[in-house]
Amino acid sequence: MKLIYQFNEGNKDMKDILGGKGANLAEMTSLGLNVPPGFTISTTACRKYLEDNVLWLELKETVLSNLRLLELKTEKSFLGNRNLQPLLLSVRSGAPNSMPGMMDTILNLGLNDTSVKLMADFTSNERFAYDSYRRFIEMFSNVVAEIPRIEFEKQLESVKIEKNYNSDSDLTISDLKLLIEKYKKIYFDFEKTEFPEDPTRQLFLAVEAVFRSWNNPRAITYRNLHKISHDIGTAVNIQSMVFGNMGKTSGTGVLFSRNPINGNDELFGEYLMNAQGEDVVAGIRTPLEISELNKEFPNIYKELFDTSKKLELYFKDIQDIEFTIENGKLYFLQVRNAKRTPLAAVNSACEFVSEGLIDKKEAIKRISSKDIENLLHPVFDDAYLKKSKVVGKGLAASPGAASGKVYFSPADVTIAKNKGEKVILVREETSPEDIEGMLYSEGILTSKGGMTSHAAVVARGIGKCCITGCEDIAFNKDEKYIVINDVVIKEGDFISIDGSTGNIYLGEIPKVKLDTNENFKILLKWLDEFRKIGVRANADTPNDAMHANQFNTDGIGLCRTEHMFFNKIRIPIVRSMILANYEDERKEYLDELLKFQREDFVEIFKLMDNKPVTVRLLDPPLHEFLPKTDVEIKNLAASMGLTMNDMLYRIENLKESNPMLGHRGCRLAITFPEIYKMQARAIIEAAVISKENGININPEIMIPLVCDKKELKFIKNHLVDEINKVFKEKSNSVEYHIGTMIEIPRAALLADEIAEEADFFSYGTNDLTQMTFGFSRDDSNKFLFDYMNHDVFSTNPFSTLDKKGVGKLIEMSAQLGRTTNKNIKLGICGEQAGDPEALELYSKLGITYLSCSPFRIPLVKLALAKLAI
Ligand code: ADP
Ligand code: MG
Ligand code: MG
After folding, report:
1. Do 866 and 373 meet the contact criterion of CB atoms below 8 Å apart?
2. How far is it, in rounded angstroms, from Cα 515 to Cα 447?
């Protein structure tokens, strides 16, 4: 078992043994960069220490023999030799996975009352020597004895106040000496023993502290959060010090080989002269921009520039580099792949491909779904977000960030919007009628409903930020205010909501909009090159279709016709149609609706030339369309020539106690075939009109909620009849297909029979999940939370496809369907179409296409491309 590696013995691929920092220090050393020499204690040693809790003899001896090598290399002395300059060390933790800020570094180790004097003599810089000693005592006490840094800073501050100093650099040598005594006393008071003078003892205590820090609560939480194993352990890097605090020609800084905010090919970074270690980030003095260095020390700047480019070329990614300048000489202390914004991720990945550094596959791998999500939605400015207080939290239902004045009804939203206000719609839940208010608002917040509630689905569809299920909201509708966790928010008050975290804030928070740029479009094309499954859009309006085209949709997989019914002119006609008592009466209203639907389809088809469009016939229970307020009911009665009583009676008649399992979907068409006939006519007439205009559309007509072959057959006969009539009237025809949704378990069980009548299946995973579990989509949010709390379920089946149960139904029915209809097309159109974890199943089953809301297309494409490469 090799416990220790000198920097020149390792390389970048040994992260498991040497940790990320150690492996890259080794790599930089063999690349010939100026890295202060040192060695790395392996993670293997750490694991053994964590078992036994002692530094064993062999490890200690190996440390000492490696130290001797280091003394020879540096021509300095760690243990104390009056004729040599003292060798000071930095002790740096470094786990295989980067765990930023988890474990602290100790600098200047080896200093004591004797060596500090030697150091002063050798460097002829007494101030520097004592400044380093002071820093060492503070860091050592903090890391090894866990004494809060504030104890030391209080002492420092009081000296500065007493002497009226502005900055640490005003401290005189005698101030520093005094501080050192005070610091040692703090150590003694906490530890009841003297500050250790013996450098070897200092070193072993420091190594133990780094090992132990693997299990400090912060580190454990971080690993839990990032799903990192707790058994790995950390490496310890022991390195000779170089000093950025030696005077005017010394300094320290951080450098990025490209701008990590936008990916621009320019050096980006900060530095401070006469400073050490964390001074740059600690905010004690304001650091200078790296470009300033070019003016002060052009040679050093050039060396930095050249090396950063060399490292970037070598590691094939943006590099984050730590450096120190000692008396005009440049040293490299750390290099790693830089953390970057989503914009920089996309830009740099694309540029690296065009520079030939990486190939398209590698570029795709580097982009995360979070990157794309953030790119498509504006996000709150981090700086302001940190200062804002979270007043409540709900489900992160649709990503993005929005600020606006609170209004509680779609009508009030519309009024406010017309006055030019920015609005957040806050409601218990939303219904199809609220669509206008939703469109007008910046974001939507509901107290009820889950990830697939109406508000959530619609918000994702229209790309609005949305938080659902914030159960802490109490409504006072009469006086128009809400209370969230004791905070009162009145109508017209500003709030901000973050649909990516579910957090609700008071007031307005500035946003940054990351535009989809040329590189994003290039990336999209690459995704299309690699993915193997089609990606279509759920698009109900020409506007949706336009958005979908922005992301190169393969077509429309779900066009929900009922969404075309909700607007001021159409809804009264829809209502009259529903409430009509006789077929003749109903037909009159249907004829009017036909015009509207045909118009819509013509518009949508125009945008989808040569692409498949699947239109779903009317699906929701009829009562969802009914008038609710007294005024609405009265007006409707008047226009239909009915008495109020008659009207109320008809409305009452349509009430259902369990509407989701009631008179909806194809069941409506068993009772009223004329409704579906009208819709089929609208679709086909629109397709013929499109054809006459040179646009090629072969519509796919989809029947929802089928549970039996005979249901489908009955409806299909009606549709085919009507379609043939259209062909005859127009003396023209188009190719079309009729298929069905599989969303009732019985349909999945009898898929072989159903496939005899269907050209395609489309899995509506929302309803299929609802009916397979028997969990109401609209109510399950309440109890599913407890399921997850008690670990009964690990995920919500409405957001992550239940592969075991629902997945089995999909798999079984796909196979059954193929036994009777070999070439049946299979699509997925529910919320879980985009579930990255289900993609493998979909591709195994030979699903033809996935259909998702327009704004999710790039995300689904990314996941599919990653699956294929
Ligand atoms: P972190 O993992 O928090 O970045 P590091 O181990 O990189 O911690 O150390 C933090 C800082 O300490 C470095 O950026 C560098 O400025 C300073 N430092 C570390 N090792 C040395 C060294 N051998 N000589 C001089 N400064 C060092
Ligand atoms: Mg570092
Ligand atoms: Mg459905």
Report:
1. no
2. 31
Average pLDDT over residues 636-664: 90
Q: Nearest ligand to the C-alpha of residue 762?
A: 3
322, 325, 336, 337: residue to mutate for ligand 1 pocket, most atoms within 8 A of CB? 322
Same domain, 326 and 389: no
Ligand 2 center to 41 CA (angstroms): 17
Ligand 1 pocket test: pick from 39, 237, 334, 335 the residue with the most ligand atoms within 8 Å of its Cβ: 334
Answer yes or no: is the C-beta of 333 below 6 A from any ligand 1 atom.
yes
Question: At 697, is the pLDDT very low, low, confident or very high (cuts 50, 70, 90)?
Answer: very high
Stronger pLDDT, 692 or 437, i.e. the higher one: 692
Judgement on whether residues 432 and 546 belong to the same structural domain of the protein: no
The domain that holds 315 is classified in CATH as 3.30.470.20
Q: Which residues form the domain of 322? A: 251-337
Q: In terms of DSSP H, where are the helices of 511-582?
A: 518-530, 542-550, 570-579
Residues 333 and 457 grouped into a single domain: no
The CATH number of residue 480's host domain is 3.50.30.10
Of 455, 477, 512, the last residue of a domain is: 512
**98 vs 92: CA distance, rounded Å:** 13
- Give the side-chain half-sphere CA count within 13 A for 275: 22
How many separate domains does the chain show? 4
- Given 454, 547, 563, 707, which residue is catalytic? 454
Q: How far does residue 94's CA lie from ligand 1's centre (Å)?
A: 11
Rounded CA separation 670/6 (Å): 80
ipTM of the complex: 0.96
Q: Is 829 a catalytic residue?
A: yes
Nearest atom of ligand 1 to the alpha carbon of 92: 6
